[in-house]
Amino acid sequence: MRGAWSRPLAGLSPRASAGLWAASFIVPLLIWCALSYLPFVWHPMVRVTDPGDVAWMTPGALVERPEFMTENAEVAARQGRPAVGVPANPVFLPAPHDVVRALVTGFTTPPARPEEPWLHQSLWHSIKVIFWGFLISSLIGVPLGILCGAIPAMGRLTEPFIEFFRYLPAPAFGALAVAVMGIEDAPKVAIIFIGTFFQQVLVIANTTRRIDPALLEAAETLGASRRVLITRVVVPGVITDIYTDMRVLLGWAWTYLIVAELIGVSSGITYFINQQAKYRAYERVFASIFLIGVIGLVTDIVLASLGRQLFPWLRTARRGWFSALVAALRGRGGPAADAAGEPDVAAPEGIARA
Amino acid sequence: MIADVAGYLDQAPEVRARFTKLKERPVILDVRDLGKTFTAPGRPPTVALDRISFRLHRRELACVIGPSGCGKSTLARLVAGLEEPSGGEMLLDGKPIHGPGADRGMVFQSYTLFPWLTVLRNVMFGLEVSGTSSSAEAIGEAKMWLELVGLSKFASAYPHQLSGGMKQRVAIARALANRPRMLLMDEPFGALDAQTRCQMQSYLLQIWKQVDITILFITHDLDEAVYLADRILILDAHPGRLREVMEVPVPRPRTPDQFLEPTFIAARRHLEELIHPRAAQLADKLPPFHMAIAGDEVE
Lengths: 354, 299
Hints:
The complex is a heterodimer of chains A (354) and B (299).
Chain A: H1 14-37, E1 45-50, E2 62-64, H2 65-77, E3 84-88, H3 96-106, H4 119-150, H5 152-165, H6 174-181, H7 186-209, H8 213-221, H9 226-260, H10 268-278, H11 282-310, H12 321-329, H13 336-341
Antiparallel strand pairs in A: 1-2, 1-3
Helix pairs in contact in A: 3-11, 4-5, 4-7, 4-9, 4-10, 5-7, 6-7, 7-9, 8-9, 9-11, 10-11
Chain B: H1 13-24, E1 27-38, E2 46-57, E3 61-65, H2 72-80, E4 87-92, E5 95-96, E6 104-107, H3 119-130, H4 135-148, H5 164-177, E7 182-186, H6 194-210, E8 214-218, H7 222-228, E9 231-236, E10 241-247, H8 262-284
Helix pairs in contact in B: 3-4, 3-5, 4-5, 7-8
């Protein structure tokens, strides 16, 4: 079946899926490599190896190609020795191997000035700010979102204002946050909170509204009170979708981090990046930016995997690593829930007709 | 028209005796002048149910049948308390019904098992929220009901691992585990394929035989109604009115073989005559339409 992949909603074999996953990273990497290592691709600059008779050039200098040509033409007209150089990229596009080297040395190189933080200190600082901002936002935003989604009166009372507030750009509160909370980490956490919270309430309220009303009706005919409807039907019914929402929202929180870290005393990974840019160490800038991407990607993969473990009804397979871990932590005796929920019979897989 | 087969009104002596005894049993559900009008702003109000009155006796299995749009489902939802009636009253064991409650179980056409709970936990749901029994008792109780519907083996499976028929059997067990006074079934087998549906009907009769439960069963399937019911409430559409209450002359115990017996056919034919003419008229109203098709000469 040629071209089967192009059918809308076509299924993918695990191998093809893994291959495409890898390709989505490899292709951009190859483009970057091509730009960096193939002298005939782009390379708008010339790195001078021998200045010849051009007076102002020095070995190692980066000159724009047209300028280099003009100078050489002038020198040639004067019967002088032309300058020699190799094609090069601008300083702001370091080659992959430079960035990889910077990534490794970034953790081993002491900061340029003693009072500056190391790379890992900067990163850790950023992660702490994100963590607190996102945690505080979620502690209020998730329950409020669920309530707004589940109880229309509640949603009507809060959502219009939140809808308005979410259009106010979080960074605009920077000055205010500094005035109220000082110049250290508190205003940064506040910016992440403001950036996350209002979106969070609306997104989660919308997710909650998608619960199948028939489930609520079924629960009512089984004698569920209103409180039970929320705690035992709405919450478990939407928790998997909310979990997915939270993964997306965490990505947004990282976006606000960069702005948040610029207010008050600049700090964290943003400060690190800015310092390196000042020193024109662009390979370090790239390394730090990639580091954020890697942290985001790894977090998301871990959370996705954790999600599959936390919500066993979404998967067909057996006990996963998480329940095994929990069982191990609790000691050899199976958890109490096992006694009720998972007795003698192992969950049958792919059960056919009645 | 129905002279050539036994009339649906001719009841064999044992059937008549059964109905006499049935009517002596206490009344579980007493519906009086029940009405439901749906109003939406900007639209004329629609009368879904108009002054419906009937009584269900203990351990009776009654089916409600009627053309689509006659308010069958609305009737079940009103009794379940999921909708507020616009008029009349409903008494369960002599006490008025207000809102949904554990004393009336319901099985829906759509699958309503909680996907995040195992089969056993689904059956335990009602017991847990009522909080009357300890966790250990609830487990024992739920296992008993699962056994009754023949799904003990699947106690730890999740709903998505079950077939449609099995899901509905769990839903029945879940509703019964609450020990309700009556069970409302709103086209519970409507989404199943024909064979599974037939099987489920037999399952239901078996379960009903073993449990003290009064059942109000909504269906649009005439065979299903005759096969299951003691009495059939036949509704008219627009507005939904109770047209007739039919005592099914087919003796119990029921078996699928009876589908071909004269009493069964007579009862079914009577239902068809009550419900069908409307549908037939509708078909007549379609405009004539001709298209040159290869093979037209077959007619």
